[in-house]
Amino acid sequence: MALFEFITVMISVILALAAAQLLLGLAPLLQTRHEVRLSGTHAAWVGSVFLITFLHWWSLWDFRDLDWTFPMFALSLVGPALLFFAATLINPRDTSSDPIDLAEHFRDVRRPFLIVILLAMVFLTVDGPLFGTEPPVNRLRFAQAGVIGMTGLGIASASDRVQVVVAFLTLALAVLAATSRLLPGTVL
């Protein structure tokens, strides 16, 4: 096993746990006998975190030729760990209340969730340029900067309308980022 494979196993496990956490958080909402009040904001953020998680896994191929050190490995774990934490926050843990209001849950976790997303995006944005695998400015970086800006706006505003716009713009930016990485190891 090459060093790259050895290192990416750990990163991949954390990213897989983040994706699993999102799905495990949604399953009880479908299984409950309680009323579930859906939320576009919640749905957009779940979609965004899910897509960002897989985009980061896809981007790991850029790191295949690096001369890895432990500090690089440790730094590369921060973003995935924060995505896992965000995935844990976004879905309600207690599905015994009636009704389960996803908009209310998002209001309750908005600030910590968005702070975690902001920190994750900062780490996911700087790792490529810091490790020398990506130029500091490219199409992907604009989408990442947009997500960071939108997340900052979401942290600053408690308005439900602003949160809906932030969530859907973030999802759109994540989709834009996906179009910049159609093949592993390339940024269009």
Explain what you see:
- The chain is mostly helical.
- The protein has one domain (3-179).
- Helices cover 73% and strands 2% of the residues.
- It is built from six helices and two strands, in the order αβααβααα.
- Helix 2 (40-59) packs antiparallel against helix 3 and helix 5 (139-156) packs antiparallel against helix 6 (160-179).
- The model has no long low-confidence stretch (mean pLDDT 90).
Unreliable spans: none
Mean pLDDT across the residues is 90
Profile the largest sheet: 2 strands, parallel
Number of domains: 1
The H/E string reads: HEHHEHHH
Keywords:
188 residues, single chain, mainly alpha, 73% helix
Please sum up the structure shown:
The protein has 6 helices and 2 strands, in the order H-E-H-H-E-H-H-H. It is mainly α and about 190 residues long. It has one domain.
Outline the secondary-structure elements.
Elements: H1 3-31, E1 36-37, H2 40-59, H3 70-90, E2 100-101, H4 102-131, H5 139-156, H6 160-179
Parallel strand pairs: 1-2
Helix pairs in contact: 1-2, 1-3, 2-3, 2-4, 2-6, 3-4, 4-5, 5-6
